[in-house]
Each structure stands twice: as C-alpha cells, then as structure tokens.
Design a protein that fits this description.
alpha+beta, Beta-Lactamase, Heat Shock Protein 90, five-stranded mixed beta sheet, about 20% strand, binds adenosine-5'-diphosphate
C-alpha cells in the first residue's frame, strides 16, 4: 500500500470530515458574497421600482390627453375654409371627449377678423365666443399660430401644443393647416381641471398601484399630486411615518404638477438590509443544521470505528486468555493419562490447577454468553429469595484455590447484624461479585491483600471488594463500565482481559434497581461497591 493510501486509511474520518466541511465553507463564503451583492442591488431596485411606478402613472395620463386630443382636435381644414361650422360641430359631436371643459376653434381664414367659436354640445353647433372667462386666455394661447398664419409660415407636420399660462385654463391646441401647411386656424380644448383631479388621477393611480403592488400590498406607497400652489391636489392614502420617497413633475400636460410617491415601509437600504439579514440567518441556520449533521455522522462513525477496534481487541484478548489455561490443562491431563504423576501430592496439585483453570474458563464463557444475551436483549433474571451471606460465601469458596495458589489474603468482613433474605437472581449477583473479585486479583499488582464485605446500610445492602492494586484514574472511572473498555495504559496492559466483566456487573446491578460505585486512586487501589435496595427485592 502506498504511503498516501495508508495515510487515507488511518485518517479516513478526518479526510471525510474535511471533504464535507470544506465545500460547505466555500459554499457559505459564496453565499455571503452573493448576498452582499444582492443587498446593494436590492436597494437600487427598490428605488427603481418606485420610479417605474411613477413613470407608469405619467404614461397613462399622457396617453389619455394626447390620444383624446389628437382624435378630437384633428378638424379638417376644408370645414374651416368653407366656413362650414355645422360640420365642425358634428365633428366634435362624433369624437366626443372626456376631460375637456370646452372645445373651440380659432378661425384665421379671414385676415381682417380672427374669430373664436365655441362648441355647444346641447345644440350641436359652434357659437361665437362672447365674453367667456377663458376667451382671453385662448386668444393669448393661439397668438403664435395667428402670427404664423399672418406671415404664411408653413407648419409641417402640425403637432399638439400644451398651453399652461393660465393656471385655471390649461389648453391643448392643434393647428389646422391647409394643403400647403399654412395655418388656417387652431382647434383646441380647455382641460377640465376638476375631472383631472377627481376622476382621472384616482382612476389612473389606483390602477397603477394595483398593477405594481398587487403581490406585495404591504409595500404599497402613498401617492400625492401637488399643484403649482404647493397644495395637495390628490392623495391616495395617509401615512404617518414616511421613510423616503421620489417625486417628479408631470412631463406634458400639468407640467407644474408634481407626482410624489412615498413609502412608509422602509428605505430601499433598510429593506435590502432586512432581506439580507433574513437570508443570511436562513443560510446560517442551514449551515448549522448541515454542520450538526456532519458532526453527528462524524461522532457516530468515530464511535463505530472505536467499537470495531475494541471488538477486534476483544477477540485477540479472549483468544489469549483461552490459550494458556487450555494448553496447561492439556499438558497436565496428558501427564496424568500417561501415568507420569505418581506422587499423590503432585496429583492433587495438578488436579487443583486443572479445576481452577476450568472454573476460570467457565467464568469467561459465562461472561461472553451473558454479554451476547444482554446485547440481543434476551438476558432474563430469575428472581427468588436468597441468602446474601450464602451467595458471597459460595463465590469465595469457588475462588479459594485460585487465591491460595497466587498467594492472596482475602479478608472477609462479616456483616455485624442479621441480613434479611432478599429476592434477587442469586446466580447473576454471584457472577457480578465473582467479576469484581477476579478484577481485584488481576489488578492488584504486587499487593496480595483484598478485602471483601457485606453489610446493611439503611434500606440497602452493600457488597464491596477492595484491593490495594494499580487503581484507576478519575477520567477512566467513568468509562470502565462500557462494554469492551479496558484502561489503555500502564500496568493494566500486561493483564489479560475481555473488557466485558464490569459491563456485565453494571447490567446485573441496574436490572436489580441497584447501583455500582467505584472509589479508586491510581497506585493505591480500588473499592467497588454494589448497592441493592432491600425494599425492592424483598
Ligand atoms: P477486563 O476483562 O479487562 O478486566 P472489565 O470490564 O472487568 O474487563 O474491566 C474493565 C477495565 O477496568 C479493566 O480493563 C481495567 O483496566 C479496569 N479495572 C477493573 N477493575 C479494576 C481494579 N480492581 N483495579 C484497577 N483497574 C480495574
């Protein structure tokens, strides 16, 4: 295997983590970058949107007046030249128009006398203008055309002209020209101001607002029209706190009127910022969830890897633990079968050895079988009344030979008072005590003193096993009850074990609603105590 592949295999978790984390980081950076750009663009877009709305209103007003006046004011010059006022009146009648307070025709066909005719809708006729209030304004407004007519200036093509000199009588004029584009008259309309303010503006602004803000009604701005005297000619709504706005003069008719669009929601910058914050928070949340997921996966995989490592350690540990006693038993068995051991004492010694080792093997196999039952959830306990002293005495008896052989002094502290018979699974509790005693022997180091005891403490009974051995560090004390866990350093390394003993003790004690506690100091020994409630088990 190449060094690179070995590296990958050894650090597979970290490689996986980095492989998932780096793209996420890059994605977040890109996201942040584009959100910053979007914020700037949104601010501009917010303002541009209001301006667009403004243009939308202007276009419609322009279209209304230009379209109407082009249609109605295009009076054929022949009617004027022939002096056929009747036809002119019918022309106005047919092209009837809204928004005009008066339609008129200025006649320059007679150079000696300019005549002004007003259209009378009631009689469908053209009446000579008398002293109507707007007549003077009409004469003044048409004066440039009168000059052209006098001078014979040709006007090609004739165009609509707006006259706003008289604030009360805005006019739209359309010169009437003959075939040679000589001005022979002017057709015009006096704009109905009340119609503009009370009908046209509400209609146009209402419809444009609807068109632009139908999807976001909460962003709807206030729209005002301010007249040349700075008074409000029209107001769409009342808004207490205006944050910002745009304003512009009407482009054609009403060019002294201002359209003001104000938003109370927020400035485009504030609006863009709040969008930015919402988007960023969402991205942050998403990243946190993803990171959490990666972290969780990382933790699970690392746990699984550790467990699989522990399992393979377990297999090799168990094989080691099995090999030595099995080999010894075989050798001693062979000696006896071949009759090589004739000495009675030796025979007894070998026999004891075989018995001790077989007991240990049985204990190990019991632990493995129990563990497998616990893992599959098939472990059951048969609870029955038990004499606790008897259980402890039995365990001590089965281990006596082993203790004697290895030179251990077991100090048994008898309970000071009579203990009640309790309901427990005797075999399981015996196995738990056996595991604790076995550990005390294994981890005693050079010490040969172990004390064992049993006593009542309130409504509990306590079994304890205490050694003067290698001890366990505080950080390890929390982990030793986990399956397969073995303290990884120090003298413990030299001792064989499966890493199952304490996890089984823990399971048994918990199943009896009891508690297992450890007090230990590295180099000074350990004391394991099993607490069982009397109430629960009696
Ligand atoms: P093992 O088969 O390894 O003894 P256990 O589950 O019985 O497995 O114990 C788990 C670990 O706890 C042991 O490997 C050892 O490191 C530590 N341990 C258990 N009992 C003692 C003790 N009395 N003194 C010191 N360390 C102990």
């Amino acid at each position: 295997m190449t060094p690179f592949r070995t590296f990958l295999k050894r650090h597979v978790l970290w490689v996986g983590f980095i492989a998932a984390f780096l793209p996420l980081l890059a994605l977040m950076a890109l996201q942040y970058n584009s959100l910053v750009k979007l914020e700037a663009a949104s601010a501009l877009a917010g303002e541009a949107y209001l301006k667009n709305f403004l243009e939308g209103v202007f276009d419609r007003v322009l279209y209304f007046y230009r379209g109407n006046s082009e249609r109605v004011l295009s009076v054929p010059s022949s009617y004027l030249i022939q002096g056929n006022n009747h036809k002119i009146a019918w022309h106005f009648r047919k092209k009837e128009v809204e928004g005009a307070s008066r339609l008129f025709v200025m006649d320059y066909t007679d150079p000696g006398q300019d005549r002004l005719w007003y259209y009378d809708a009631a009689s469908i006729s053209m009446l000579p203008a008398n002293r109507q209030p707007e007549s003077r304004s009409v004469f003044v407004a048409c004066a440039p055309f009168q000059l052209m007519s006098r001078k014979g200036t040709s006007l090609e093509p004739p165009t609509l002209v707006v006259d706003e000199k008289d604030a009360d009588n805005y006019m739209i004029l359309y010169p009437i020209t003959d075939e040679d584009f000589q001005v022979v008259g002017v057709a015009g309309m006096v704009i109905n101001m009340a119609y503009f303010r009370t009908r046209l503006l509400p209609e146009v602004i209402g419809e444009t607002l609807d068109k632009y803000f139908r999807d976001d009604p909460e962003l709807k701005p206030v729209v005002k029209v301010i007249d040349p005297l700075d008074e409000v000619a029209y107001e769409s709504d009342w808004l207490p706190d205006v944050a910002y706005g745009v304003s512009r003069y009407f482009p054609w008719v009403f060019s002294h009127y201002r359209l003001v669009v104000q938003s109370g929601y927020a400035t485009p910058e504030q609006w863009a910022r709040s969008n930015f914050i919402v988007n960023l928070s969402l991205s942050g949340l998403l990243a946190a969830v993803l990171l959490g997921g990666i972290g969780l996966a990382f933790r699970t995989v690392s746990k699984e890897l550790k467990l699989s490592e522990m399992k393979s350690d377990f297999v090799s540990n168990v094989s080691h633990e099995l090999r030595t006693p099995v080999a010894s038993i075989r050798v001693f068995g062979e000696f006896m079968r071949l009759g090589r051991v004739t000495d009675g004492e030796k025979c007894e010694e070998y026999g004891e050895y075989i018995e001790t080792e077989s007991r240990r093997l049985t204990q190990l196999l019991n632990n493995i079988l129990d563990f497998s039952k616990i893992e599959s959830g098939a472990k059951t306990y048969s609870i029955e009344p038990c004499d606790l002293r008897g259980v402890l005495a039995e365990v001590l008896k089965t281990m006596e030979i082993q203790h004697r052989h290895s030179g251990f002094n077991i100090h048994y502290e008898e309970p000071a008072e009579d203990l009640p018979a309790v309901r427990i699974d005797c075999e399981a509790i015996a196995q738990a005590i056996h595991n604790l005693l076995d550990n005390a022997v294994k981890y005693s180091g050079d010490s040969r003193d172990i004390s064992v005891g049993l006593r009542r403490e309130g409504d509990q009974v306590v079994f304890w096993v205490e050694d003067q051995g290698v001890g366990i560090s505080r950080s390890e004390q929390k982990k030793i009850f986990e399956r397969f866990h073995r303290v990884p350093t120090g003298a413990v390394h030299n001792v064989k074990g499966s890493g199952l003993g304490l996890s089984i003790v823990h399971h048994v004690v918990t199943a009896h609603h009891g508690e297992i506690r450890v007090k230990s100091e590295p180099g000074r020994g350990s004391r394991f105590s099993i607490f069982l409630p009397i109430n629960e088990v009696t």
